[in-house]
Amino acid sequence: MSFLEKIAEKLEARERLDFADGVRLLGEHDLPALGALANRVRERMHGDRTYFNVNMHLNATNVCVADCKFCSFARLEEGMPGAYTMTVAEAIAKVASRPAELTEVHIVNGLHPGLPFSYYEELLAGIKALRPAIHLKAFTAVEIHWFAEHYGMTIDEVLRRLMAAGLGSLPGGGAEVFAERVRNKICRDKVGADGWIAIHQAAHRLGLRSNCTLLYGHIETLEERVDHLLRLRAAQDVTGGFQTFIPLAFHNENNALERLPGPTAVDDLKLFAVARLLLDNIPHVKAYWAMLGVKTAQTALWFGADDLDGTVEEEKIYKMAGSRTPEALSRGELIRLIRAAGRTPVERDTLYHVVAEGDALAASPERRRGRLEVLNEGA
Ligand code: SF4
Fold first, then answer.
1. Quick check: helix, strand or coil at residue 248?
2. What pLDDT, on the 0 to 100 scale, is given for residue 254?
3. Cβ of 145 less than 6 Å from ligand 1
4. N or C terminus of the chain with fewer C-beta within 10 Å?
5. Domain count across the chain
6. Which pLDDT belongs to residue 377?
7. Which of 69, 71, 185 to mutate to test the pocket of ligand 1 (most atoms within 8 A of CB)?
């Protein structure tokens, strides 16, 4: 019996794959067979359903005290070329300029040493006052850790104050690669692996859901990728609050790792497949098109992914690292991409409640917004 046949048997028996399985799968060259295994699991969990949402990204400041080697977005101080910080009013005006069908604002920033904590509370509360039905997925675990240290609060105090201001969930960024060897080389200034996981688990215990990520395709080994995935799986066994795993492909422009080539499309698709096979307790795997490229993201829908992310207007972090994807995809383009892949599009909110599917996808933005308000009242 071949290795992949043995894996298929394990999957059929709902047996967990282990570290050795994961490493060997990532080295597997039979990409179609690997994809077929991941697709079988994906279809067992979700059928053909493929999720997307209507969202925007808001990066209110790129001033950051950290020096992550892969980062093209941050500037160390105000006044440096390219540094910016929006006022709260400017940030809220960006949201106000977006259409009524927007259901989520994804907020991630640099670690700015000169802003008061009230800046972040006012930002969340101001967006909620403007559009109460919008879900605020905001601040990575790295930012939450920074807030606690910089403003002298516990992690729980930070989370509770942000929740009182309107925080709805945490994004998955900042995990990078959990292996200490890698973190020491590429992101030694930010919270470590155990701290990152503890913050997500604290959020889960307070009732928040969150996402998780892996930044791959730079200096990490295949073993370190699998170690990262298994640490996420173990954390999820404890608190169960991760909704979605998002593989983040490294981009090599305008940062200190420019000499590295970055992952190929085959690396991307293998990682999606192996993540789907190893992460048996995380419901969704997302092909984040803004980082992966639209075509690879669409292909990943047959390699374990069941989510294409959203319209993603205003994304800066990967654009500044050389991503060549469009600035935004319209809702109609997302639906077309999913249908062209032979899948069934489902518009979701951040927490995977269905906003529209089937004929309702063609309903007016007002009707869909009404549905979102109902979901929010019930949440
Ligand atoms: S990745 Fe985040 S924490 Fe690191 S330098 Fe960039 S903005 Fe700062």
1. strand
2. 75
3. no
4. N
5. 1
6. 63
7. 71
Query: Does the residue 5 lie in any domain?
Result: no
Closest Cα to atom 4 of ligand 1: 68
C-alpha 312/C-alpha 106 separation (Å) is 9
DSSP 8-class letter at 279: -
Is the CB of residue 58 below 6 angstroms from any atom belonging to ligand 1?
A: no
Does residue 180 form part of some domain? yes
CB 339 within 8 A of CB 333: no
Q: pLDDT averaged over consecutive 10-residue blocks of the chain (379 residues)?
A: 95 97 97 98 98 95 93 92 96 93 95 98 98 96 98 98 98 97 94 97 98 96 98 98 96 80 93 98 96 94 96 68 72 94 97 94 74 65
Confidence at residue 251, expressed as pLDDT on a 0 to 100 scale:
86
Q: Which residues span the domain enclosing 309?
A: 37-378
CATH classification at residue 250: 3.20.20.70
Burial class (CB in 10 A: 0-12, 13-18, 19+), 362: exposed
